[in-house]
TrEMBL record:
Residues 32-177 form the DinB-like domain. It comes from Chryseobacterium endophyticum. It holds the Pfam family DinB_2. Coiled coil: none annotated. This is DinB family protein.
């Protein structure tokens, strides 16, 4: 496994996901507040949900990165890198809206109590947090700590995979926001 290539891939995906999500903060009020016909969340609510999900994932990423760095003193990092296999297919499903049933915890549901500019600012900080973790674990250390991820039955995943998961979750939500906007535009003439 080329761990440096994998870390760069995660960086690139994070940049893409966060940049794409950031563009939604510029949408007009009608788009932001449009409720889809299926009764789902508005774009405004989806943006808050992305922030909340990132918030809780970053708690796990922080703990995992600290443990991974502590483990780097005692484990054979070279062997971990050599033996690491990334299950790309299973992870890519995380970024596909509707690929599997997603049951989110209640604490990740939007409450509507945050202003968009606050959410946007916090998301920018979250993006930079992810980059800091990748910088700290730049030599493959993120492989040295695994934590259980129940979503899509991913099982025990390492810290890099958690960061990638965070980015894929945002990608999944982008599709949902695009669907909302398409439906709103389609219903304009009604």
């Amino acid at each position: 496994m080329n761990i440096f290539g994998f870390i760069q891939e995660i960086r690139d995906h994070l940049k893409y996901s966060f940049d794409e999500v950031d563009g939604w903060f510029e949408k007009d009020r009608i788009t932001l507040d449009y409720r889809p016909s299926n009764g789902g969340w508005t774009v405004r609510q989806i943006l808050e949900h992305i922030y909340l999900t990132n918030f809780y994932l970053l708690i796990l990423i922080e703990k995992g990165s600290k443990k991974a760095l502590r483990n780097s003193g005692g484990q054979d990092l070279d062997a971990e890198i050599r033996n690491y296999v990334f299950d790309r297919e299973k992870f890519e499903e995380v970024g596909e809206y509707g690929a599997f049933k997603w049951i989110r915890p209640e604490h990740m549901e939007p409450k509507g109590q945050m202003q968009l500019n606050e959410i946007r600012s916090l998301m920018s900080m979250q993006y930079h947090q992810c980059l800091i973790y990748l910088d700290r674990m730049k030599n493959g250390e993120g492989l040295l700590c695994r934590t259980t991820m129940t979503v899509n039955e991913l099982g025990k995943i390492n810290v890099y995979e958690y960061i990638y998961f965070l980015s894929l979750h945002a990608k999944r939500q982008l599709t949902q926001m695009e669907n909302n906007e398409s439906e709103r535009i389609g219903n304009k003439g009604i």
